[in-house]
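Thread: Newbie trying to understand structure tokens

Hi all, I'm a second-year student working on a class project, and my supervisor (Dr. K.) asked me to get a predicted structure for one chain before our next meeting. I've only ever worked with sequences, so writing a 3D structure as a token string is new to me. If someone could post the tokens and maybe explain what I'm looking at, I'd be very grateful. Here's the chain:
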Amino acid sequence: STLLVIGLCNLLIFTVESPSINFAIWAVNGAFQGAAWPALTRIFMNWFPDPAVRGTWYGLLSTNQNMGSTLVPLALPALMKAQGWRFGTQGPGCCCIAISLLLFLTLQDYPSDQSTHSAKPQKQPKGGDKKDKTNTAEADSNSDSDSSSFRLLAMRLTLLGLGYLFISIIRQGLADWSAVVLEEEKKLSPVQAGRCMAMLEMGALCSGLTGGFISDKIFKGARAAVMCIFISVSAPLVYAAFIMDLSDLGDTTTVMAGLYFVIGFFTFAPHVLIGLFARELCPSKPSTAGGFVKALGQIGGAFAGAPLMYIVASYDWKAAFYLWVAAGVCAGLCFLPLWSVKPTKAVSAKKKTQ
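---
Reply by user tm_fold:
Sure, no problem. This is what the structure looks like when written as tokens:
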């Protein structure tokens, strides 16, 4: 339903002359976009209950952001030239509506065996029923009844949210202002700056495919360890890209494109794993946990707008670059206390149902 509303908003935007109505339509579009991802991840958690492989599949799921960001500049300009500028929103809107209808017909909240299993719990063997009740009681006491566990959970989610805030300052700042920065500070043409932005998305795509796999296979579910390492590496990379003098390294476009690739690689995996890790920390209310962390991330993204421009206007772009470096360091410090925390849900759930 959220995807359908998003598609309708894209069809309706700019069809009226009133700026206030267009603003309202776009606000509704943003609100439903924010509501779509928690619902999608809840379905994902139902289909992938095993933490041992969940990071890999979640990373693959999250590459949709990079694929969309890559397809837009490749496909839309030619289509807008042929169909008119309004096709820039109406084309994606039609795609959203078509895909929403397809999902309505095919997507299920649970696997069929799990749905049947949960619908008829009274037919389980007595021993299994007692075991399930025991597990439920333990989960309730650990997450809801025990105040110390609740405080620990709140602290962990707050650290994740603050880390997400700092990451969003970097990622959204690069997404919004790279074209300006590369032209003004690095003297690149718009085409050359566009290549750097494409490399940023390519690095993020590779990061989405590998970050979750690394957290599964190498760190055995310790998502925060991967996030801490990746975002800590991004800080010196941002420093090298925007503060250091790179003129002696060769062609500026090639050097900046390479740096944008590795920056995209080391900033996107933490961005992906934060949402998954928040839901794993609170399996009883995964959407609530993910929404709380996401809200703090949105604050960081908003900071990359007018507040960042105020800093640039008051000082210069170098102040913004130092802010991005500091944000990377602060994000790493937020994840460091969570280094060894792993998902607690049993990995053998699939075996129990067989």
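A couple of things are worth pointing out once you decode it. Residues 147-184 form the longest helix (38 residues). Residues 115-122, 346-354 have pLDDT under 50 and may be disordered. Feel free to ask follow-ups in this thread.
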